[in-house]
Design goal:
Blueprint lengths: L10 H4 L8 E2 L3 H10 L3 E6 L4 H11 L2 H10 L1 E6 L4 H15 L6 E5 L5 E5 L13 H14 L1 H16 L12 H13 L17 H24 L16 H18 L13 E2 L7 E2 L2 E2 H18 L2 H18 L9 E2 L2 E5 L5 E5 L7 H8 L1 H10 L25 H19 L6 E2 L2 E2 H17 L3 H18 E5 L5 E5 L2 E3 L2 E2 L6 H18 L2 H17 L17 H6 L13 H16 L2 H10 L1 H6 L8 H12 L2 E6 L5 H11 L6 E6 L20 E6 L2 E2 L6 H8 L17
Parallel strand pairs: 1-3, 2-3, 18-19
Antiparallel strand pairs: 2-4, 4-5, 6-7, 8-9, 9-12, 10-11, 13-16, 14-15, 16-17, 18-20, 20-21
Helix pairs in contact: 4-6, 5-7, 8-10, 9-10, 9-11, 9-24, 11-12, 11-16, 12-16, 13-14, 16-17, 16-18, 17-18, 18-19, 18-21, 19-21, 21-22, 21-24, 25-26
Amino acid sequence: MVNRLAHATSPYLLQHKDNPVDWREWGDDAFAEAKRRDVPVLLSIGYAACHWCHVMAHESFEDDVTAAQMNEGFVNVKVDREERPDVDAVYMSATQALTGQGGWPMTVFLTHEGKPFYAGTYFPPVPAHGRPSFRQLLSAIGDTWATRREEVEGAGSRIAEAVGRRTLPSGGAAPDAATLAAAVRAMARDEDAEHHGFGGAPKFPPSMNLEALLRHAARRRLEDAEAAAAAPSAEAPDVDLTAVDDTGPVALGLAARTLTTMARSGMYDQVAGGFARYAVDRAWVVPHFEKMLYDNALLARVYLHWWRLTGEPTGARVALETCDWMLADLLTPAGGLASSLDADTPVRDEHGHVRGVEGYTYAWTPQLLVEALGADDGAWAAQLCRVTPAGTFEHGTSTLQLDRDVHADAAQAARWRDVRERLRTARAARPQPGRDDKVVAAWNGLAIAALAETGALLDRPDLVAAAERAADLLLAVHLVEETGPGGRPRVRLRRVSRDGAAGAPAGVLEDYGDVAEGLLALHAVTGETSWLTVAGRLLDTVLDEFGDGSGGFYDTPADGTDAAVAAVGRPSDPTDNAYPGGWSAAAHALLTYAALTGSGRHRAAAEAALGVVGAVGPQAPRAVGWGLAAAEALLDGPREVAVAGPDDDPLRAALHAVALAATAPGAVVSAGPPDAEDAPLLAGRPLMAGSAAAYVCRQFVCAAPTTSVEVLAASLGAVRAAAVSVDGGLPSA
């Protein structure tokens, strides 16, 4: 017998369709039923790859006695946080306000209006670690609801009021150079000097802060080069690149140390590529084994940009391996990218029962390596990958870490490639973790940008083609044409799809910002103006439906906030989490679109949104990494690069390749036929003496057009483009 979740589109909800709990999906009908029965709502929030969500489900939601207690005393609502980030955000704020911490699974008890009066995370089946059992909690909540209703409803109103009046600074000026330098110094103070990265355990990959650091280093390098070029040779400034107060080298050092360490760590899948969500320890040895699309999209891009800035081969290698992993393990038949791989692997025990074992697919012992590789290669791989008899993980097993840069020596690198391929084959024969195959619009937008840029810069047209297919799916399935107020046409996004069919949840701000970001990256790489046009329509919806009237944004559209969510407060958060928050995602895309089109409205909105980064960045830079990255682009640019020439012109291809290799944070690129009216940067840009040409304008001042790849490279800091010729193409990784 199945419950109401049998009709859900979310794989996480479908995991609970056979529970004896009478689960409902989030919606007005659940609150109406709670009011009719005069019982509270029990809200349980999690996601498919969450280990402790599975544990609580097995212990409590699959238990008949616990389920009967839940069904008798509550209306039970199950939410996939990845489908409904707005619901998750509001009740996570309440949980943190009540308990001082948050996480998943999240368990919240609500009034009939949706106001939270009690909240927590995981509850065990028996009292443990200072926590009551889940059944004890249910009994206590039920008794309190029945005998002290006035207190319950008063508490719900007070909590909702407290959450709703939370304020964060906004409306100030966008960050200036001093503010961005202060943010870099704050990150430097927070570095783990021994193991790199920031903070202690658990340690998350700081992808957005790394992007901001690379952009800061690139901007400072360009400023030094431009100052030197502008000064008479006899008065050329003596730039001390080791000076403590020079935040360019500081930023690059921070980024390089963390990127190098993560690439060799147990958090990176040394066999198949791709990163786990985080490491449970300071030294990056043991990952929490779930692998998320958003992490890998962001990290592929930042590793690519590290290579683009420095030529570090690890950057190109990891970017390619990560993109290849995304397509190998997350690509769906419809052309989108699935959300995640589970942390647990289903394994059948000696009694025939299937249980989830974390890391089972990925861990090794010395003996397992010998069985897969033979004695010589097995011993060599154990030494290289720090696989010890005692183990670095659980039950004598080890994660794989690279003991050294094996790729620096040609013979060692060739041996490792052969060993790696054989390990991949051996591992494929093991049970594999489950996959959450829903397509999330925002995370696919991030993946589109990573695939498109990596494919273009590292000569992998198949990656660009994959990005285009994913974008086609978003436009065909997630994009909805509507008629807005006054009969004006507008577009809306659906948050998720599965098997090529859109789910019911409406897109939130991060969906609009990240999808626009991906489409703008595709426009830069392919020159197709259709991507630019759709991005502009999405960003118009952002300005029309999400603005808060004070320069910031709400996470939900004006007409798209549920009554229960609104009872607590329309969500609005300028900070980032594991992926860009909606506020910074929108600011990022608005800034790029404004530079490509000359739209003052979009640029003004981006500058206003970045005001919060100026206020928060110097004190808490890790909370606004994507905003800091956008602020670096704002300070550097816009650097508008138009490459005009016939489609089959080798010089246009070479100039376009140089433009894409730009390290200048404020650079945006349009390439296409001369005088193209549907690409604003190309309008009025003719050929030069019958030849393709590049037109560069910086901060609204234009330089003379050029047909020289060398001149263009120098103006954009395109150091990886030094070997470009009119035969086309960037140097290989």
